[in-house]
TrEMBL record:
Membrane-crossing residue ranges in chain numbering: none
UniProt key word Heme: yes
Positions of region (Disordered): 1-44, 521-543
Coiled-coil boundaries: none
Catalase core domain residues: 41-428
Keywords: Heme, Hydrogen peroxide, Iron, Metal-binding, Oxidoreductase, Peroxidase
Lineage: Bacteria, Bacillati, Bacillota, Bacilli, Lactobacillales
Name of protein: Catalase
């Protein structure tokens, strides 16, 4: 009887569980949206006739406040994530100073650009697509945002390490980020674009082709934040004391040049040290090797706006430096690390609309949308409208206005008025005239029908992609082909085929090489008949110097004291960083008693974390030392890095058939080992080393 009752109770319990499950399913079902059917609507159910273009005053005019669809779409996107940033979540920052050369004075009345003026800055570097816990060395665009604390207020130069962007109109920013982020079904993959939704977007939104080829180039794998360019992307406007406007493109040019990792190396670094780039910046500043960049500008008279074969307001286009040279206008030095990552780097709030007199906007439709989006994003991420009161965001000249209260209000306002006009406080605070530093928008004539449209001048999506391809060296082209092949090889076949079709509109060789690698029938025709190139776009033409590069010194007891000391001193004189690596952490001793502190063992570092190897060895090496040294050398050789050897280190290179290759320096093939090894370090890589 009891068994029957127990059985019935179990059946009842299972039935109740099933009923509850069905009820829960019904609750969920009523909220499910099948967005594969029906027409696109707003969140209020209004069908929209256009979702590609924001509402403008004329095809090339500014975006209008009444564009409710853009505002709804962008507001929802800005508020998608809490608490980390939707994009640029993984960041690292540092403080510094900017000193102006004065060369911008004829074009901009901004006081921080006056000759000799020094302005404190804060810079935040970041990856775009990964979460805060992702790796530093993923293939991605990098953010390069700088806050200038000027005497006229904060100016934010919010840049990327690539000069163009995926889209032409800000209304599509949620779309491209949704596409590149992990797929919603399984949140895979993390911090990579190698998946269907991103490449489906690329194939169906061909305006992204230019930015994508930059992402497939070595530029997407910077060796260091200190060796990375920064581009403002948009065309801005300088305004001088006479009110004359000049179009301007702005750039950060690193003193050390723009250098990159090899893709396999970047993947290995992600496993060995996921904080590789941030640690590199932190250690450089702590060690007094303060990184420097020059701020350069391309200045374009307003009367030359339409002289190019592309639209100057198109953020998917760049102005070749050979057509408009870059003029240096100042130098930035980062010289102090943060005291607290959260309080400073995580809470800093940038906005391209934070400008000072002398800097103004254009009708670039991506820029116009960013002027709304950034403040809207900070409202949810930093808990309300008072994020400007956080110490890292406070202007050095203070703030005075009629804004009051709200979440996280810190200021204690003592005035009894918070409105204009007032008589109680003699109408204070009052507005300032332009002569007294009051900001005055550039007076540009704007007219046109209210339209959701794209100017015909924005419709060429391929010419500058071909320009970039034409400008690459052989090894850069090989990298681009390999990158496309790796990424598209992770996608379904229809996605691969669509992207090969897009690439065939750019360059037939490019499309055919990738097609063969990913199993797509290579196209037989296509490509643009366009042979212009811009040598400035190739990293082969960037400055090369040995400063701050890391040399792993593989060494054991019994080395020749005098010789090793002489070489290490020469390395230090060239500002190379020698890292002593041995089998254990005990100091290594030379034949005459010299001791060298061991910084790493073979277990605590890896060849991919070093820029070069100098192999010394010793007279009595263990099997483990030999085995690990061979592994280190093979990685360095495969990644085209300089290799040097003296004493007992030379047999390793002979046995590995490395002696007669480029960038391999020994005392057997040179009369001045230190000088020749430092020269090899200056070249960074030996790309055409025979394998």
């Amino acid at each position: 009887m009891d068994k029957n009752r127990e059985q019935m109770d179990k059946q009842t319990s299972r039935g109740e569980q099933q009923d509850n499950s069905n009820k829960k399913q019904e609750q969920l079902d009523q909220f499910r949206i099948d967005d594969t059917k029906g027409d696109l609507t707003t969140n209020q159910g209004l069908k929209m006739s256009e979702d590609e273009f924001s509402l403008k005053a004329g095809e090339r005019g500014p975006t209008l406040m009444e564009d409710f669809h853009f505002r709804e779409k962008m507001t929802h996107f800005d508020h998608e994530r809490i608490p980390e940033r939707v994009v640029h979540a993984r960041g690292f920052g540092a403080h510094g100073v900017f000193e102006a050369y004065g060369t911008a004075e004829p074009y901009s009345k901004a006081k921080f650009l006056k000759k000799g003026k020094k302005t404190p800055v804060f810079v935040r570097f970041s990856t775009v697509q990964g979460f805060r816990g992702s790796n530093d060395t993923v293939r991605d665009t990098r953010g390069f945002a700088t806050k200038f604390y000027t005497e006229e207020g904060n100016y934010d130069f919010v840049a990327n390490n690539m000069p163009v962007f995926f889209i032409q109109d800000a209304i599509k920013f949620p779309d491209v980020v949704h596409a590149i982020k992990p797929e919603p079904r399984n949140e895979i993959p993390q911090a990579t674009a190698a998946h269907n939704t991103f490449w489906d977007f690329v194939a169906n939104n061909t305006e992204s082709a230019h930015h994508v080829i930059w992402n497939m180039s070595p530029r997407a794998l910077p060796r260091s934040y200190r060796m990375m360019e920064g581009f403002g992307v948009h065309t801005f406007r300088f305004v001088n004391d006479e009110g004359k406007g000049t179009f301007v493109k702005m750039f950060w040019k690193p003193k050390l040049g723009a250098h990159s990792l090899v893709f396999e190396e970047a993947q290995m670094i992600a496993g060995n040290d996921p904080d590789f780039n941030r640690k590199d910046l932190f250690e450089a500043i702590e060690g007094g090797n303060y990184p420097e960049w020059e701020l350069g500008v391309q200045l374009i008279p307003e009367e030359d706006e339409h002289k190019f074969d592309f639209d100057l307001l198109d953020p998917t286009k760049l102005v070749p430096e050979e057509d408009v040279p870059v003029t240096p206008i100042g130098k930035m030095t980062l010289n102090r690390n943060v005291d607290n990552h959260f309080a400073e780097t995580e809470q800093v709030a940038f906005h391209p609309g934070h400008v000072v007199p002398g800097i103004d906007f254009t009708n670039d439709p991506l820029l116009q949308g960013r002027l709304f989006s950034y403040t809207d994003t900070q409202l949810i991420r930093l808990g309300g409208p008072n994020f400007h009161e956080l110490p890292i965001n406070r202007p050095i000249n203070g703030f005075t206005n009629h804004q009051r209260d709200g979440y996280n209000r810190i200021a204690i306002n003592t005035s009894n008025t918070a409105y204009r006009h007032n008589s109680i406080n003699n109408n204070k605070p009052d507005v300032a005239s332009p002569e007294d530093g009051g900001y005055e928008h550039y007076q540009e004539k704007v007219e046109g029908r209210k339209v959701r449209a794209r100017s015909d001048s924005f419709k060429d999506h391929y010419t500058q992609v071909k320009l970039f391809w034409n400008s690459m060296s052989k090894r850069e082209k090989d990298h681009i082909v390999s990158a496309y092949s790796f990424e598209l090889g992770k996608c379904d076949m229809p996605i691969r085929e669509m992207n090969i079709k897009v690439l065939s509109n750019v360059d037939l060789e490019l499309a055919q090489r990738i097609a063969k690698n990913i199993g797509v029938t290579p196209p037989e025709s296509g490509g643009l008949d366009y042979d212009k190139s811009s040598p400035a776009l190739s990293q082969d033409n960037t400055p090369h110097m040995p400063d701050t590069l890391k040399v792993g010194v593989l060494i054991d007891d019994g080395f020749n004291d005098e010789e090793v000391q002489r070489h290490l001193e020469a390395f230090a004189s060239a500002n190379l960083q020698s890292v002593i690596v041995s089998e254990d952490q005990n100091p290594v001793k030379g034949a005459n008693g010299t001791e060298l502190e061991v910084e790493h063992t073979f277990d605590t570092t890896d060849a991919v974390l070093l820029d070069a190897l100098y192999v010394v060895g010793g007279p009595d090496l263990s099997k483990d030392f030999v085995k690990e040294t061979v592994k280190f050398l093979q990685k360095a050789f495969d990644h085209f890095k300089p290799i040097g050897a003296t004493q007992a280190g030379i047999p390793f290179l002979r046995e590995g058939n490395m002696l007669d290759h480029e960038g391999v320096i020994t005392t057997e093939n040179t009369n001045d080992f230190s000088t020749d090894f430092i020269e090899a370090m200056t070249k960074h890589r030996f790309w055409y080393r025979e394998v």
